[in-house]
Design goal:
single chain, TIM Barrel, Rossmann fold, 3 domains, 3-stranded mixed sheet, 15 strands
Length: 370
């Protein structure tokens, strides 16, 4: 059973039924509807209404149950999900990635060092393996398999893709839709050693999407982990909050005071599209990133989050004019209509209209240097 909406709750209250005690205010709210909305947001308790029918109390208590427990292991929170699809609200705790170190195997120290030192950075987030589980021995800072098994987690050993996928879906549906406490423990999938890393990547990618709370691997491969971490970051990002990068000056290929200067917004996808092209250029460059609440170029302009004044204030804050001799800033081609406005506001620089698409930057630079 999903959580009740304010309107669903209101249908049980006196005002909806137009009976005695309508909008009596004994609950502390001015109307039954106001109380229903508070209940839906968990800002009030149902006991506040002396006239709430027993049927509503039973339904409300059932709908308010936490579908899935949250389990914390060495600072990593696992589970706690309450929807089937992230667009309904959002997913809460990202699927944890764990690696097993069998200390009875040769070269286990090398594998351990490899796992501990592995890290990637994407969209201002530093990503590492979440948990190291040891077998046949213990190590400081890790968790033995015996200790791990004591946590209230449900295990699925992956042997058949279809069966594992069906189990994960059935357990999540029982937890979220039925709020069945027998299925409220977070679920992890255990992968035994395999030589087929492509299949392992495909299966584990699916399980991240539906609906593993943790993946435990006997194998460790940097390409596998990188793929899963990038997928996981996309899946567990709040869809209502755009990905954004820090607003500052980024440097590519060791620029100097005469290097090219580009400008864009702090929308992560736009930033990385431009940054990848600038890294590939045979010349050094700067990229000025304007704070635009994570909006893309045209969206930021239409929402007045990318204006001439904001650009001018950002440049002053960064003291950029005193750091370079080049006096030309290349703006996105989609903002060509802002050229005069920007030049009126920014006295230190000339504005050059660049490309609409990031992939065209290399050809644009070639023409610029002729």
């Amino acid at each position: 059973m999903t959580e009740l909406s304010g309107l669903q709750i209101f249908k049980y209250l006196p005002a909806a039924k137009k009976t005695e005690h309508t909008n009596c205010k004994k609950c502390g709210s001015p109307t039954c509807m106001a109380f229903a909305l508070k209940l839906a947001k968990h800002q009030a308790t149902i006991e506040k209404c002396p006239y709430a029918p027993a049927e509503l109390k039973e339904i409300y208590i059932q709908s308010s149950k936490q579908p899935q427990k949250t389990v914390e292991i060495q600072g990593i929170k696992i589970g706690g999900e309450n929807v089937l699809y992230r667009h309904e609200k959002t997913f809460i705790n990202k699927t944890a990635l764990a690696v097993v170190i069998d200390m009875s195997k040769p070269n286990w120290e090398k594998k351990l060092e490899h796992v501990q030192n592995f890290e990637i950075t994407r969209v201002n987030e530093h990503l590492k393996v979440d948990l190291i589980i040891t077998q046949n021995g213990t190590l400081p800072g890790t968790l033995s398999y015996e200790e791990f098994k004591k946590f209230p987690l449900r295990e699925i050993i992956d042997e058949d893709f279809q069966k594992t996928a069906e189990k994960l879906a059935a357990i999540r549906q029982k937890a979220v839709l039925d709020k069945d406490e027998k299925y409220s423990d977070p679920v992890y999938v255990y992968f035994k050693h395999t030589n087929d890393l492509n299949l392992l990547c495909a299966k584990s990618s699916y399980y991240i999407c539906k609906y593993a709370n943790m993946l435990v691997f006997e194998d460790f491969d940097e390409n596998l982990m990188t793929s899963l971490m990038m997928l996981r970051q996309n899946i567990f990002t709040d869809p209502q909050k755009p990905l954004q990068v820090e607003s500052k000056i980024y440097e590519f290929n060791n620029p100097n005071e005469n290097s090219l200067i580009f400008m864009t917004t702090n929308f992560a996808l736009t930033f990385f599209a431009v940054a990848n092209e600038l890294e590939s250029l045979p010349v050094p460059s700067y990229l000025i990133v304007i704070p635009a609440e994570g909006m893309s170029v045209l969206t930021a302009w239409s929402a007045e989050k990318f204006t001439a004044k904001i650009v001018a204030n950002t440049l002053r804050k960064l003291d950029f004019a005193n750091k370079v001799k080049n006096r030309k800033i290349i703006i996105p081609g989609l903002l060509a209509h802002m050229k005069d406005e920007l030049e009126d506001e920014i006295k230190d620089f000339e504005i050059v209209v660049g490309t609409i698409d990031a992939f065209a930057i290399a050809d644009f630079v070639k023409e610029l240097n002729r």
